[in-house]
Amino acid sequence: MLDGVVKIGGAKGTNHDNTLLDLAGRVKRGERWVLCHGVSGAMDALCSAAGLEPRYVVSPSGYRSRFVTDREMVLFEKASFSETAKICSFLGAMGVPTVPINPMNGTLVLGKVKDVIRALEGNRTILLRGNRSGKITRIDNDGIHAIIERGFLPVFPPLARDESVPRYINIDGDRLAGSIAASCNARTLVLLTNTPGLLENVDDPDSLIKDISLDEWHVAENAAKGNMKRKLLACKEALEGGLQEAVIADSRIELPITNAISGGGTHLWRAKSTEIAV
Fold it and tell me: pTM of the full predicted structure?
């Protein structure tokens, strides 16, 4: 069993040093983790340098995502592998051996492109074609466990291999982390963000919702705004897939992972009576 899967964000200005130091210490003590990361800041910087305007769309159900065509996908791949390399270099300097995951080398993460998506434009719903984003269709949990058994920490970018043709597709990093956690029977899923967790009032950091279970999910959905909606979706999918606990917690503190699994942030449960040893 994995001790956990942690997802770190990729927004501009995010400093992951504390998270990676915390993770390195836990791995060196013998814990088994998987790391997933985002690339939004790096991708925006590459788009700006190339003279491309980053395009974000909102689905009719309120989920915001990046719209990636073939042209942007070249930059997205570059951003993904660049960020993976930086993370692996940092962890290597801390004495943690890593494996930077390239989804094209094997079948660790397979996905399916959703070529046409629906998006809101003013008061209308429009169809956008040429999308290179998609959803995860398969996680090779045996392959992931094999990497960990050999003493390595897998580091996953937000990419999958298209199940139909040999190409990369863009996938959501939070949902990737949730899929891995459920498939690999992890003890916990930790999604780190720049807020204390899920807030009842986004303008009040003291309005933290501490615990939510699947049978009261409407409370969480009513509170989630913006990008938090997708993190919540990732947690729900993982819990429905068999995971017992997920945590949305603050990345900006000294020991983000330790804080999360020790009661910090918002804990989301498959069943509220479940307790997970950490």
Answer: 0.94
